Amino acid sequence: MVGENKLKGELRIKGAKNSVLPILAATLLNKGISILHDCPALKDVYSMIEILKHLGCTVKFIGSDIIVDSSGIIDNHIPDELMRTMRSSIFLMGALVSRNNTAVISFPGGCDIGHRPIDLHLKSLRKLSIMIKESYGYINCESKRIKGCDIHLDIPSVGATENIMLASVMADGITTIGNAAKEPEIEDLQKFLNSMGAKVSGAGSNTIVIEGVKSLHDVEYKIIPDRIVAGTYLIAAAMTSSEIVLTNVIKNHLESLISKLNESGFAIKTGNDYIKLFSNKRPKAIDMIITLPYPGFPTDLQAQMTSLLSIAEGTSIVTETIFDNRFKYTEELVRMGADIKVDGRIAVIKGVKNLTGTSVVARDLRGGAALVIAGLGASGITIVEDIEHINRGYENFDENLRSIGANIEKMM
Ligand SMILES: CC(=O)N[C@H]1[C@@H](OP(=O)(O)OP(=O)(O)OC[C@H]2O[C@@H](n3ccc(=O)[nH]c3=O)[C@H](O)[C@@H]2O)O[C@H](CO)[C@@H](O)[C@@H]1O
Ligand SMILES: C=C(OP(=O)(O)O)C(=O)O
């Protein structure tokens, strides 16, 4: 891409990756038809579809609609090569054991952003009377009856909260999740499950209550907009001193980012379902950004924001509290002229006047997006390699950016 082009125009944000993936896993539960609207065409979504098909579902992806028929025979085994394609394959553990009483899976894959154990998932499912044995890299789950119980999470893990919800929807009795994650995608999963006849309440607060039901029915549902994709485009506009309007967004989901962009000197206007960012000046440094569980600043926007702050006036400090190795991309930003020092979970960013284009490598999804943002603002040509990471979370990233004025091409 050739940097320093102004962006101008409107983009509609599609459904959220982190909603559609657990919801696709949940389609196993109703033994019938699920129609999902506004689904993004992402590498992870295709991986999840492949797993559902392997298990015996019929799946069609037409336009932005995914139609899953899970009435057919459902296998109970997910091969290792499918499990490894992404982190979200772990959602199949709760859904599959709930549907089949047994599941044989292995450890999930995903971006290299630090240590990502699944101990909380395993511990919680065991509390629900699911017997879990680990051997030779496989995880064997079995339960005659899943039994509702009280679970208190040590960490408000998004994935563990969702896996418990999936496993307990049809359990005997009531399950309570204390210290649950509060991310909007968890509320979306609750709404989806309730639309198919489940009895889940409390998502969005730190206590979720799931009253087991005997059966579920067919469902049609629209996925919430992707707050991380929306945030990425807002930061891209800020980086290039541009003006863009995003539609199909939920402003409340982006409060922590909007507040930090305001602090950095950007004017943002919001309406019922749009956000507009207008900028014609260099960003101001931000004393402190700390990534935290929702409603705190999302770890999934940390890299993109650091990219922006690399050209800010002054010195910023970014602290990553969720993952233990999510600053790898900063080495690539430094190759573009950024002045960033990382010590463990803290990055100190001394703003430089401008970045310069060069060849850089995407090592993970959001780090890759951060490098594209850097390239859009940099002088000269930037080449971002290994963009398959970016395809995990951004539909038509290059096309969308080009449609609002970026000089960017995908090379085959
Ligand atoms: C598909 C999806 O929704 N992915 C999101 C989800 O990932 P994911 O669900 O993997 O993230 P978690 O909320 O579970 O992870 C938070 C922290 O808990 C730790 N942990 C988690 C589970 C466990 O069993 N043991 C344990 O120690 C993790 O290592 C991490 O340090 O939430 C993250 C945090 O908002 C986001 O960055 C990811 O985009
Ligand atoms: C880390 C992310 O996703 P996942 O949990 O799917 O790896 C992300 O979306 O930034």
TrEMBL record:
CDD domains: UdpNAET
EC number assigned by the record: 2.5.1.7
Recorded GO CC terms: cytoplasm
Keywords carried by this UniProt record: Cell cycle, Cell division, Cell shape, Cell wall biogenesis/degradation, Cytoplasm, Peptidoglycan synthesis, Pyruvate, Transferase
Catalytic machinery residues: 111 (proton donor)
Enolpyruvate transferase domain boundaries: 4-401
Modified sites of kind 2-(S-cysteinyl)pyruvic acid O-phosphothioketal: 111
Sequence positions that bind phosphoenolpyruvate: 17-18
Chain positions recorded as UDP-N-acetyl-alpha-D-glucosamine binding sites: 87, 116-120, 300, 322
GO terms (BP aspect): cell division; cell wall organization; peptidoglycan biosynthetic process; regulation of cell shape; UDP-N-acetylgalactosamine biosynthetic process
Pfam families hit by this protein: EPSP_synthase (PF00275)
Pathway(s) the chain acts in: Cell wall biogenesis; peptidoglycan biosynthesis
Cellular localisation: Cytoplasm
Catalytic activity of the protein: phosphoenolpyruvate + UDP-N-acetyl-alpha-D-glucosamine = UDP-N-acetyl-3-O-(1-carboxyvinyl)-alpha-D-glucosamine + phosphate
Enzyme class label: transferase
GO molecular function: UDP-N-acetylglucosamine 1-carboxyvinyltransferase activity
Functional summary from the UniProt entry: Cell wall formation. Adds enolpyruvyl to UDP-N-acetylglucosamine.
HAMAP family membership: MurA
Family: Belongs to the EPSP synthase family. MurA subfamily.
NCBIfam families xrefs: murA, PRK09369.1
PANTHER family assigned to the protein according to its UniProt record, in alphabetical order: UDP-N-ACETYLGLUCOSAMINE 1-CARBOXYVINYLTRANSFERASE (PTHR43783)
Protein name: UDP-N-acetylglucosamine 1-carboxyvinyltransferase
Organismal lineage: Bacteria, Bacillati, Bacillota, Clostridia, Thermoanaerobacterales
Gene: murA
